[in-house]
Amino acid sequence: MELKSTGELHDSLKGAAREKAGRFDVKDPALLRGEIIDGLIYNAVFNNDAGARDEARRIIRGSARALGIECASIQRLYEAMGRGECSGFTVPAVNIRGLTYDTARAMFRAAHKNRSAAFIFEIAKSEIGYTGQRPGEYSAAVVAAAIKEGFHGPVFIQGDHFQINAKKYAQDKSAEINALKSLIAEAIEAGFFNVDIDASTIVDLSKPDVDCQQRPNYETTAALTLFIRERQPEGVTVSIGGEIGEVGGRNSTEAELRAFMDGYLGILGGNFKGISKISVQTGTSHGGVVLPDGTIAKVKVDFDTIERLSNVSREAYGLAGVVQHGASTLPDEAFDIFPKKGAAEVHLATGFQNLLYDSPAFPQDLKKEIYAYLTEKCADERKEKETDEQFIYKTRKKGFGPFKEKIWNIPAENRQRLMRELEERFDLLFRKLNAVNTVGAVKKWVG
């Protein structure tokens, strides 16, 4: 239900929580976790009044803080991994494109079942656009889900693929970098204390040697690192990721990693803390490769590259290890291998989108409406000889923004079935990645 004013938002807390001198006091956590938090997050996302939306988000963050739920940086845990003092698991980082509040709840439930605290909620720069979720909205949904599920402790929210657009960079370098700085500042303000910078898009493979090829990448990543360090909150060291190989391109090499890191650290000069992990290309692509019948082609991940570059990144540079992108559509048997090969983090997105759209619990009339909309609005994205199945698979991620409220209001019975399916999937991935029983490690290194 939309509340008409900030006063009504505070009135909705009656008996559960109150604000005094700028701090929230939660009197009845169980009452807050009922319909109150459901109403707050609905208003934080859909209230037509921007002031009321912002106030709902502030109330959620303040109430969460009173319950011991804090947006946090995973930096210190990754530093421990880089020193070899913490190992044996791969951190799952999950992109949520739709039903964000419910999906985050499902992930918190799976984490509780597995005694896991080392997991990340993330959203990419491109996803922020086509799902219509600005950082403030996204973090509010995640934190509200933590309240709803009785979670306590640090919550890791990450800006994924905060990426340089190569075409715009070529046209106006300063404008493109400044646009990304603006997004980073917005994200940090919203509690995104983990940011993955992706300047791999401007690596220039036409250059004669690997240092020259990587120079635009490491110079830009260093500049954005300094920007983040200047703006991170007092007492917080934002965990930053770098990237040396654009996902979908050729596999990364040790020479590229060393060229990037040596050039990058040379610019920082030891005066600022650098990145904590590095993304590489090992054979995957975002969303997988779609065949004409709509199925996903099998992909062979180069696990030897993961192991070799993870070892180099830790031993030579103290990083947590490498990050694997585009992994959610891999076969289940692949996920056991990531922790064995020393992957620090795995990014998972499209597989969960597929689970939602392809589930019998997703209303078929709504799906038809979304697909008809995409067929009309995204017609210019259709490639020659592309089948209907390929076109819809490629574009259906863009249905989450225009249909956000309709998807949010899917009948409760259907949503519950969808969330059970997602929770089962999260549970499997936690176990496959050995991201279980990590509560102690997070408490020790993060707090």
Structure at a glance:
It is built from 20 helices and 11 strands. It has 447 residues and is α/β, with parallel strands linked by helices.
What does this structure look like?
Strands 4-5-6-7-8-9-10-11 form an 8-stranded parallel beta barrel, surrounded by 7 helices. Strands 1-2 form a two-stranded antiparallel sheet. The chain has helices at 6-11, 29-46, 50-66, 75-82, 100-113, 125-131, 135-148, 166-171, 173-189, 210-231, 254-268, 303-317, 332-335, 337-340, 350-358, 364-377, 388-395, 404-408, 412-432, 439-445, and strands at residues 17-20, 23-26, 69-72, 91-95, 120-124, 153-163, 194-198, 239-243, 277-280, 322-324, 345-348. With 447 residues, the protein is an alpha/beta fold. The longest helix has 22 residues, at 210-231. It has 2 domains: 6-66, no CATH class; 71-355 and 414-445, Aldolase class I (TIM Barrel, Alpha-Beta Barrel). Strand 4 (91-95), helix 5 and strand 5 (120-124) form a beta-alpha-beta unit.
The secondary structure category is alpha/beta
Uncertain segments: 285-291
Total domain count: 2
Number of strands: 11
- What helical percentage do the residues reach? 40-55%
- CATH level 1 name of the largest domain: Alpha Beta
Shape call: globular
Oligomeric category: single chain
Largest sheet composition: 8 strands, parallel, barrel
Give, in spatial order, the strands making up the sheet with the most strands. Answer: 4-5-6-7-8-9-10-11
Content of β-strand: 5-15%
Gap between N and C termini: 36 Å
Mean pLDDT: 93
Cα radius of gyration in angstroms: 21 Å
Instruction: Specify the CATH architecture of the largest domain.
Output: Alpha-Beta Barrel
Number of H- or I-type helical stretches: 20
CATH topology of the largest domain, by name, is: TIM Barrel
Q: What is the CATH H-level superfamily of the largest domain?
A: Aldolase class I
